[in-house]
Amino acid sequence: MIRSALLLAVVVVLMASTRSFLPGAAGVGPDAGVALGFGFLVLAAVQTGNLFAGARLPRLTGYLLCGLVMGPDVGGLLTPAMVTDLRLVSGVAIGLIALTAGSELNLRALRPRLRSVLLISLCALPLALAACTLLAWGLAPHLPFLAPLVGSQRWTAALTLGVILASLSPAVAIAILTETASAGPLSEVTLGVVVLADLFVIVLFTSVSALGASVFGGAGGAGLSPFTSLAIEIFGSAAVGVLVALALAAVHRYARGHLALFILAACVVTAEVGARLHLDALLICLTAGVLLENALGVGGAAISRALAPAALPIFAVFFALAGARLNLHDLRTLWPVALAFTVARAAALMGGARLGATLARAEPVVGRWGPLGMIPQAGVSVGLAELVARHHPSWGVGVRGLVLAVVTVNQLVGPVLLRLALTRAGEVGRREGDAPEH
Amino acid sequence: MTPRARSRWAWIALVGALAGLALPPPALGQPLDAGTLHAAARPAHEADDAGAASDPGDASSGAPLLDASAANARAASADAAVSPGSRAPPTPSLRRRSTGSVARVTLGLFALLALVILGGSPAVRAFERRAGLTMVIGSGLPFLLLGVVARRPEVGILDDATLRDLTPVLEFGLAWIGFRVGADFDVRAMDRWPRGTARVMGAESACAFLVVVVVMGLALQAGLHPVNAVRNALILGACAAVSAPTGVRAMEAAGLLPAGPARDLRRVAALDDVAGVLVLGLVTSAFRPAGVGAWVLPPLGWLFLQLGMGVVHGALLVSAVRVARTANERFALTLGAIAFSAGMAGYVGFSPLVVGAVAGVVVANLPSAAEAGGLISAARHRAFERPIFMSFFVVTGALWDPTNRVGWALVPVYVTARLMGKLLGLRAARAAAAELAVASAPPPSPPPAEGAPAPVRVGVSVRAAWMALMPTSAVSIAVIVSVRALYPTVLSGALETVVILGALFAELAFRASLSLAGGKAPEGADLGALPIEHEALDTPSAPPPPPPSPGTEPPP
Question: Is the pLDDT of residue B22 over 60?
Fold first, then answer.
């Protein structure tokens, strides 16, 4: 730990001295800011993760805190331009996370727990949606961005906020499960629920967007109806995912030694092209991962093994960037409201998960510790909030600020709770041929 | 078709393709303007070079000209681009495209990456050997060409937005190449080399450097591009000084060089990469962009800072790898340390190539040779290294403007000056060391003094050694890419054209010379991979080094 702390201190001093050369600018070299930000985040985040691991805390929280402290809002070592320019890393990381998640979803093994996954999802998500929507509607007169809205407009805005806040975080769940090498009923159910929840939220959000377009008018993009957009996004992503899976299966068969590089290449292409085609990189790679594991005979273990060397730097930078993007300004301004929404969301998700587990007669360990795994929240919420801010600037900007504040809290607390749940459930380090990273 | 014929056709196709790309002059300037991406992220300090663009020599290049106001406007837009919240969104070109076009781009990008990945696989390299294409592929030039083609508007695989996302590969690739160059500079291994190796290397690279600096300096000063002529001539000299070991390998495989002298010449070729990097370090220290940054230092101060930065990064790399507890963490931290050094160097206006090279020297010369070797091999993650090099060439090609006519005009002068410089240098080395045999046949080797390292015996004619050192090292391309990033002007585009085409023509000249000399590489001969991927300089087959004897002077 001392070595890690010393190395972290040296890296921070080097970065601070370098940034003093051109304060606020991206650097003399055209891409220097990107390389500098990437290298700094890899070195600093990995060492922070080591320090957190030494303190029996998730590395992920270390990565997030590292990004938050070094980011534009606090330490200022990373400029906003650096954070923006590293978007390709984020895109690739999302693809890798989704591919890993999909390849971990063995439907045959999950079948006995499918009932638990479905019932927990069906109980937790609607409850969280209802709780956040009602709270937003109730607090609307006190929220400057919702107060001017009346009637159906206020309901629509509250519903939109509720849908966004109900989302979970597959990225965080996968990262924690990988980091702790967890396996068992709780791990499987958590993975299934967060993936399913992501799909539900995307579908719900598109429906709410359609409602918003009719209530507020003028929303929607590219001249397509919301349902057409939804169909393109979901089915188009799934179709591209099938192609990616077939390509990767061929690589696994004929050029196994290059599987890792081809997966990275697929993630780069998905990140580069997917966003511009309104396709969801997460869905593409999730589909590919599920197919590879369940239909094409490329096991999740092979994918994890192939990606192991590249995964650490990419994940560290991805979560550190997520930390750097957290908005402390919004949190400072909106903290009482954000706290209320955080508590309401957590209570609803945990209560719903407990109810679902009871109805499904899930294993006791799932009923007892599963609810703690519902708290993490990350990229999906932020992405949806950005869309709302773009389509409905009059009130969407305020919604985005509130969502970012809630996500900030959940990002910092969620991973700790999920790790605690896995530890208490006795599933840490139980994955075959793998060991927890500390 | 024999491998030899296939190789010849491959070279013809390569040159034809390049010429074809260079021919249509008019509208290509806009989409292929290599400066656009770089200049779009430039601060205002490059106005010093902007004046160079007003030179009439560029007026015919077809590339958009820069004047001072344009440079400032770009700088202003660049400042806007990096300011919080005002970053320009990616070019939405894909949104305007048809479904077929999008599918083509998607598949093309994937195919491009697949080619980059497969380019490093043993199976492909075995195919290259069987097909006699090793030198063509190994030069890296086909991947460069691939980048040029992928950037063409009618192909459109690498559009502005994609390229902007991929350009950090350049910075990272430069630092990685620098690290590889520096890591070859192990003083302990060099102590075991034949005496005089450094002298031969110094003479041949220094003469090539000086001749090119003088000739190109005069050519530039005479009217082609008088602004910053000294700096630009020095840069071209640095690019001319370096030789690739592929020529030596090819001649050895063709039976034109005996094994011993070939090994010595490979060492010379590996060592002279350092000379090019050193000159680049001096140039980037002496020619600082005026008024940029909060630090004010004299040129020697900048040089000291640049070297110090490299040393610090070497130490950081060693510390980071020592802290790592797993192989994956070691790889992550190596990657991070090299990216950090690349970014730090670029941020203050140094070349990542130089900083990376100094870091490599530090790592290679750790007190524990075993630890140094372990660190270097850990850094050379084979599965990822070659794709990084290939990606570097692809992005370099995509940013290169092959239509720069000033560059084309300067190529013959540059190539001739370089070859003459190499020839003069080898003659000077023979005169100075008196160890370069004049005869074509290798002379009987005299027994070395007991306990002393054998003196270098190139053992071949000056002509054969000259021929072997004709091909240009890919480090020259790294040098010019580095310069391009630091001084992104129209003139740098011309320099880039000179160096890239110079490398191509040097290869062609070598192939022609090899044919004329009657050499024929045996089928399946492994001529190595990329010129930057040196084989181990002290191969296991090399005879064990004699014990050092510091008091013994080399025989005259």
Answer: no
Q: Which of B42, B85, B343 is the closest to A35 by Cβ?
A: B343
CB pairs A-B closer than 8 Å? 228
| pLDDT tens, position by position, A263-307 | 877 887 777 777 667 777 777 888 888 888 888 777 767 777 777
Assess whether A298 and A337 both reside in one domain.
Answer: yes
pTM for the predicted model, two decimal places: 0.72
Residue A217 has pLDDT above 80, yes or no: no
A88 touches chain B (CB under 8 A): yes
Q: Measured between CB atoms, which of B117, B166, B352 is closest to A262?
A: B117
Interface of B with A in 387-446 (CB under 8 A): 387
Per CB-CB distance under 8 Å, the chain B contacts of A93 are none
Q: Is residue A430 part of a domain?
A: no
E strand spans, A73-112: none
Which chain B residues contact residue A18 at CB under 8 A? Answer: 344, 347-348
Number of domains in chain A: 2
In this structure, what token pair is assigned to residue A370?
């599963």
Q: A179 and A159, same structural domain? A: yes
Tens digits of residue pLDDT in A295-353: 877 776 777 777 777 778 888 888 888 788 777 777 777 788 888 999 999 999 999 99
Which among B42, B87, B345 has the least Cβ separation from residue A84?
B87
SS3 of A338, please? helix
Is residue A248 predicted with pLDDT exceeding 50? Answer: yes
Nearest CB to B333; choose among A19, A46, A260:
A46
Task: Tokens 């130089």: give the residue.
Answer: B354
Distant-in-sequence, close-in-space partners of B116: CB < 8 Å, separation ≥ 6: A265, B143, B387, B390, B391, B394
Interchain contact, A80 vs B85, CB within 8 Å: yes
Domain boundary residue among A52, A85, A118? A85
Measure in Å the smallest separation between the Cα of A239 and chain B Cα atoms: 13
Query: How many of the other CB atoms lie within 10 Å of CB of B294?
Result: 9
- In terms of domains, do A198 and A320 share one? yes
- Contact: A31, B332; criterion CB under 8 Å: no
Chain A residues with CB under 8 Å of B87 CB are: 80-81, 84-85
SS3 A331: helix
Q: How many CB atoms lie within 10 A of CB A251?
A: 24
Q: Is there a domain that residue A438 lies in?
A: no
**Secondary structure of B111-128 in HEC code, one letter for each residue:** HHHHHHHHCCCHHHHHHH
What is the residue range of A119's domain?
A: 88-424
Interface probe for B, chosen from A17, A20, A36, A41 (most Cβ of B below 10 Å), is A36
Torsion, CA B484, CA B487, CA B493, CA B499, rounded to 10:
-50
pLDDT for res B210: 92
Q: Of B140, B115, B118, which is closest to residue B531 (Cα–Cα)?
A: B140
pLDDT of residue B426: 83
Residues of B in contact with A276 (CB under 8 A): 90, 92, 94-95, 161
Secondary structure (3-state) at B472: strand
Q: What is the CATH number of the domain that holds A293?
A: 1.20.1530.20
Among A32, A62, A85, the domain-final residue is: A85
d(Cα B62, Cα B493) in Å, to the nearest integer? Answer: 12
Q: Is A50 exposed, middle or buried (0-12, 13-18, 19+ CB in 10 A)?
A: buried
Residues A382, A264 share a domain: yes
